[in-house]
Design goal:
Elements lengths: L1 E5 L4 H10 L4 E3 L11 H11 L3 E4 L13 H22 L2 E7 L22 H16 L3 E6 L2 E2 L6 H11 L2 E5 L3 E2 L2 E2 H18 L9 E4 L6 E2 H11 L10 E5 L18
Parallel strand pairs: 1-2, 1-3, 3-4, 4-5, 5-10, 6-9, 7-12
Antiparallel strand pairs: 8-11
Helix pairs in contact: 1-6, 2-3, 3-4
Length: 267
């Protein structure tokens, strides 16, 4: 099996390259070969690689910056997945696409299920929802895996930011009224690998009998403040911390260009 992984140097993509390697030949082109902001580049890359499975781990994830760059965010998150779906169909390939808890507005008090109505409240969420809709409307064999609050040991994420700030500052104030489920990038990759392996071993066509939209997050829930507190308590390099005070604040005390859902736990 030939597997094309986009975003191969990102948090999830890096883990996918390792996890999927036993299942086939993994190719992970860089931006110069597969520019997600260009539909023509994405199309040409897929036609050249001729994969049996496309795993789209690439995304525009700068939530606040997306408010100023909506066209770029839409090109990467909304348009490119649809192009991938078209090309996957042409090749008879399957497609796995990752989405986000930010397609929901956060108005629920209990975890969101897959069939809950989407109502994004920022540009990032709007573009990710557009990507989901494009895949669902076009792809013949696909998985859409929604995840949330992704962290890992690579890239830019909350874990690495908090560890860095704890070494630089004596006081930090972290939002405590936004609730979600932090999810390790390796968990996402390992679960994806298990799903692919199971499908390849038990189904006539890869993802043929399990196509659909699924939620993929860690169990439990916490706030950004609670997450930060746990991360710092478990930091193996606590001796380097300068931090003396970890304060809890509400969303209104930390205004950002993009709105965030207050509750985005996925069931």
């Amino acid at each position: 099996m030939r597997i094309l992984v986009t975003g191969g140097n990102g948090q999830v993509g890096y883990e996918l390259r390792r996890i999927l390697a036993p299942l086939g030949t993994v190719v992970a082109p860089g931006r110069e070969q597969c520019d997600m902001a260009s539909a023509d580049s994405v199309r040409a890359c897929i036609r050249e690689m001729k994969p049996d499975l496309i795993v789209n781990a690439a995304a525009y994830t700068a939530v606040d910056k997306a408010e100023q760059e909506p066209d770029l965010a839409m090109a990467v998150n909304g348009i490119a997945p649809g192009v991938m779906a078209e090309e996957a169909n042409s090749l008879g390939a399957a497609l796995i696409h990752y989405s986000t808890d930010y397609i929901f507005d956060g108005s629920k008090a209990i975890p969101y299920v897959e069939d809950d109505a989407a109502c994004p409240i920022n540009v990032y969420g709007e573009t990710k929802w557009a990507g989901e809709e494009a895949v669902r409307s076009v792809a013949e064999r696909y998985l859409i895996l929604r995840t949330s609050w992704v962290y890992g040991v690579r890239g830019q994420n909350f874990l690495l930011t908090i560890r860095r700030l704890a070494r630089e500052r004596q006081e930090l104030n972290i939002v405590a009224d936004q609730i979600g489920s932090p999810t390790w990038s390796r968990l996402i990759a390992e679960t994806t690998g298990l799903m692919v392996a199971h499908s390849a071993g038990h189904q006539a066509e890869l993802l043929g009998d399990c196509a659909g939209t699924y939620h993929l997050t860690s169990a439990g829930q916490t706030s950004w403040h609670g997450f930060a507190k746990s991360l710092l308590a478990l930091d193996p390099d606590k001796a380097a911390h300068q931090l003396e005070t970890l304060g809890a604040i509400n969303t209104e005390q930390y205004p950002t260009p993009a709105k965030r859902p207050k509750f985005s736990v996925l069931n």
